[in-house]
Amino acid sequence: TETRAKQSRQRNARLLAQIETFKKTVDDLKTTAEQQKTEYETALAEKDTQIATLAGRVDTLSSEKAGLESHNVALSDTVANLTSYKNAVYYAVGTEDELRKRGVVTKEGSKFLVFGGTRLEPARNLDPAAFTAIDKTQQMSIPLPRSDKKYKIISRQSPTYLGGSVTKDGKVSGTVEITQPEDFWSPSKYLILVQD
After folding, report:
1. What DSSP line would sit under 6-47, residue for residue?
2. Which residue from 14, 176, 168 is spatially nearest to 91, judged by alpha carbons?
3. pLDDT tens track for 72-109
């Protein structure tokens, strides 16, 4: 019985030693698991921060892209407006009385008895509303109201750049055919034709 009791105590001591070893192993595993959990949480937090930073950059780039697109649209509009403004020209056709009433022409000079004389000139302040607007790159011909009458150009354009029926003294009839628009419109963007 004593021998068995002694063997039991030795076995119990071995078992207790094993239990202590198992406990230490479990504690080590717990510690390792906690360390790994902390490392994973730290790594996840860093990844979340990186994702948030990248999302912020994407938002910034998106807003910059939208800003650039709106800037490009505004720039295109500006270019279109400038082109339209540059190509806009105006003409007025009529009798002397009609054009004077509209404020397009005026008499200049003075006459005393038989000396001096007056001449018809474009008004000093021309109002585009009194004219017909056209695009000089699109419209190369201007139909005149009466084909049986001749019209004299009293604005600064030269009849040299016209085709069609132009007389030697620079009068036109039927339709004003512009053969070289840039040269024709360069002296003035206002063309005034007075019916004879």
Report:
1. HHHHHHHHHHHHHHHHHHHHHHHHHHHHHHHHHHHHHHHHHH
2. 176
3. 888 888 888 888 889 999 999 999 999 999 999 988 77
Q: Which of 113, 110, 131 is nearest to 122 (CA)?
A: 131
- Nearest C-alpha neighbor of 102 from the set 129, 136, 135, 81: 129
Encode burial over 69-93: b for 16+ CB neighbours within 10 A, e otherwise. Answer: eeeeeeeeeeeeeeeeeebebbbbb
Q: Write out the two tokens for 29.
A: 């595993």
Other CB atoms within 10 A of residue 107 CB: 12
Rg (C-alpha) for the chain, rounded Å, is 48
d(CA 82, CA 74) in angstroms, rounded, equals 12
20 to 6, 14, 15, 170: CA distances (angstroms): 21, 10, 8, 123
Do 145 and 152 form a contact (C-beta atoms < 8 A)? no
Q: Is the pTM of this model over 0.85?
A: no
**Given the structure tokens 């840039």, which residue do they identify?**
182
Provide the 10 A C-beta neighbour count for residue 193: 22
- Encode pLDDT of 102-140 as tens digits: 999 988 776 665 566 678 889 888 889 999 999 999 999
Q: What is the pLDDT of residue 170?
A: 80
